[in-house]
Amino acid sequence: MNKSIFILVLLSLLSGTAQADKIVFDPTNFLKNSVTAAQTAKQSVILTNQLMTQVDQYRAMLVHLQKLPSDAISLRVLGRVPGSVDDAQTLSADVYSNYQQLSNNLSGLSNAYQSVSSVIQDATRLGVLSGQSVEQLLEGEVKMKAAGRQSQTNYASLFDNLGRDIDNYKRRSDGLAERLPSNSGLMEGLGTLGAQNHIVIDQLSNLVANANAQAKANSQKQALDEEKGEYDARYIQSWEAAKAKARKQMGY
User: For 54-94, how does the pLDDT look when each residue is reduced to its tens digit (9 = 90+)?
Assistant: First the structure.
């Protein structure tokens, strides 16, 4: 196959692949999802704090009565029936500590959702002013980094870091929840949060991955364009030299 034709075909394939695989990022939809997830996390914090208060009341009951409450109360608050007052005090301290850590993690998760929402809003505003999409802004950052240059924005790194923070907070929260007494309201809230978290993380991952893939495809296309331009220049130069030689041989 002629080299110029081969390069043109390859350019077409690169362009087509980039368009076919690309999932368009919708900032409005992402903001809606992240705000909803932040609200769910806040609601879970409120419920967790209410359960902490129950444990506090249980511990006060132990001190006041100096005997175990009913098995039904112990089972509901602690998740099992303790064998003695000392056992109940140790167990309630552990349960309280786990609720406290869960509350802190869920608060951190809610803050991370709010942070990523703020960054998206900022990137969207900048995109409107510069006539670019959020994806194009990220793509520009990737190109600048590949060229060893400092970009004026740093959205790609922010999204990467916030995505990891969200994932870590959710993993720790799930681990803590497994050590706590079963509570249908809390478990339902964490289940809903898990589904929302999955959507937000997927959207963030696709956004960053698309920016990297598009920057790579454009870089390859540029290299092929340059190679084609060099080939065409050499071809024209060779053709002109051949014409000049022919004219000389023919006496022109």
Answer: 999 999 999 998 899 999 999 999 999 999 999 999 999 99
Q: What is the pLDDT of residue 142?
A: 76
Distance CA 195, CA 27 (A): 19
Radius of gyration of the chain (CA): 31
Q: Give residues with Cβ within 8 angstroms of 200, minimum separation 6.
A: 30, 33, 34, 37, 113, 116, 166
**Both tokens assigned to 20:** 């076919």
Of the chain, the end-to-end C-alpha distance in Å amounts to 35
The answer, as to whether pTM is greater than 0.85, is: no
Cα torsion angle, 121, 125, 131, 136, sign:
negative
What is the CB-side half-sphere exposure of residue 74 using CA atoms within 13 A? 17
Question: 192-231 in b/e burial notation, b at 16+ Cβ within 10 A?
Answer: ebeebbeebbebbebbbebbbbbbbbbeebeebeeebeee
User: What's the 3-state SS for 169-213?
Assistant: HHHHHHHHHCCCCCCHHHHHHHHHHHHHHHHHHHHHHHHHHHHHH
Reduced to 3 states, what is the DSSP secondary structure of residue 235? Answer: helix
DSSP 52-67: HHHHHHHHHHHHHHSS
User: Which of these, 45, 59, 53, lies nearest to 91 by C-alpha position?
Assistant: 59
Cα 87–chain centre separation: 43
